[in-house]
Task: structure prediction
Amino acid sequence: MKERGQMAGKASLRFFHPPVIVSAASVAGRKEGEGPLGSLFDQVEQDDMFGTDSWEKAESALQKRTADLAIEKGGIHKKDLRYLFAGDLLGQLIATSFGTVDLKIPLFGLYGACSTMGEALMLGAMAVNAGYADQVMAMASSHFATAEKQFRFPLGYGNQRPLSATWTVTGCGSVILAGDRKSGMAKITAVTTGQMVDAGIRDSMNMGAAMAPAAFHTIEQNLEDLQVEENWYDRIITGDLGKVGSRILVDLMKEKGRNIKEIHMDCGIEIYDPNRQDTHAGGSGCGCSAVVLCAKILPKLLAGEWKRVLFVPTGALLSTVSFNEGQSIPGIAHGVVLEYMGAEG
Amino acid sequence: MKERGQMAGKASLRFFHPPVIVSAASVAGRKEGEGPLGSLFDQVEQDDMFGTDSWEKAESALQKRTADLAIEKGGIHKKDLRYLFAGDLLGQLIATSFGTVDLKIPLFGLYGACSTMGEALMLGAMAVNAGYADQVMAMASSHFATAEKQFRFPLGYGNQRPLSATWTVTGCGSVILAGDRKSGMAKITAVTTGQMVDAGIRDSMNMGAAMAPAAFHTIEQNLEDLQVEENWYDRIITGDLGKVGSRILVDLMKEKGRNIKEIHMDCGIEIYDPNRQDTHAGGSGCGCSAVVLCAKILPKLLAGEWKRVLFVPTGALLSTVSFNEGQSIPGIAHGVVLEYMGAEG
Result:
């Protein structure tokens, strides 16, 4: 395999046959549609129930619609998709289980909390680069109402939220990766797999603080493994650290002598307008980085406006059970290097 | 890729550099220790709490202990394990998150319900065969008390269980896969990735019936993809169909003109003595197939008693939320072809 890819450092892989993102689709909810990226999503659904009678069925319908749209936009035959790498935030991945059953595609169910889109892209790229598949789909979703119901309070309580809290994005992003293509939106040239990082944070209303140390660890590992400096990237884009977590990340990097302030972007900060939308620290959920990837990051790479991006979806392993038992909230983050297709593109 | 492995049929891969299982460890609970396989487990823990103060911490302690034991038995340095592919049954994979945080190994968190050990072995083998890692760990666990608490009734209720119900295994199995080795317990020569199969079963106390159609689908796919007949295998071993699901599987195969009755084995049936242990249809949980793999299947392959086994962990995507909303219970099963190392072993 020396021929197909190369282990780089402790936790990274370089791909010699970089998988190409040939299609991407994003479907978002009404609130996301009213935000700064509203016009960039492929579809904005005004009905939070997506025409179903439960929040969970709504999230499944969201996944199904996004998957179908990515297939349609790519002009791909469903039967040519060899594997599906997907997940969501719900127990037993029910949004994915029920949302993808009709696709009849071999499925790898993943759980990385809000880092799931990173995990899906990474495993999908590993499969394509190794020649295990010609075309695969990577997908992740979240829904504000299913997440609040599972992790926090019934919506009807109208609970007050502290300023460090984030707002779970209703949205789904789906990407199709293909091998040995000359054109596409971007290529995946390397990946860095994150490890669990437990910084001892116990505040479930401050997930940014729980995830920032994991993002820091993965970014540092990526730079070390690939032996590059932070400015090798046009952007280092985290998933859903929000305002609080982003500040912590920038500070942690600064302590290491790295200034990422100018090149750092966070999908959770991008997706809402905090002045107009009352979302406090920003957006979160697997769907947050997934829709921002499809609606904003990939188009910028396609246009060549950015040449190289380190995409780092971040996850907080929040569980009501472990939280109520007094446990901390460990974090994880996965890094995916996305590059402009360039002249060969 | 053509050089390292080959796509076979619709959902299978053949490995040209078969990853070798160089170490395996099993830790089981007291009830499992009293069952027919009791003497085969590496460790039987008499304390269901594993020295902690909650069921969830107990399951994390179980994972940690099993991982450490697999590392120790293999004479491996922890730092040489490049990736961990792991999961459990709990929401947000808390047994894995907290159980593996100290390992500090890049983690792919997986959810395939009780098929997780199959998913972990499959992805681990794909990574090793592709040259992405020299050594990786695949691990899955379950705990009777955490599963009952999450999926069914508080234990204190002393609920009656129908005869079709299974008993969640308290146990963890951990396997270390390595590349390009001449000796080991067994090698993984091919894998078949399952898809979600929804047979419309709505009885959460009959998970065998929910999973049997998925097992059937994956076994048929495997035979078709590899272009072999069922008797190419010495054993076809399902995860936790139990007595009811196993009968359905054998019947479904029979309708296809295949007689697997003599070569079929089910980990859920193996692990308990239904006459003495009041476990009804058998054992279940991610830990069920994981411990039976490590304690019984791999030793038989090492001894050459079996030359070729199709190992098919089965999962039922049961969720209390979707179940209470009237949804069915889809199933999934993943197939892993395990072979005797033979003369080269």
Q: What stands out?
A: The two ends of chain B are 25 Å apart (CA to CA). Chain B has a mean pLDDT of 94. The longest strand of chain B covers residues 20-28. Residues 103 and 124 of chain B are 17 Å apart (CA to CA).
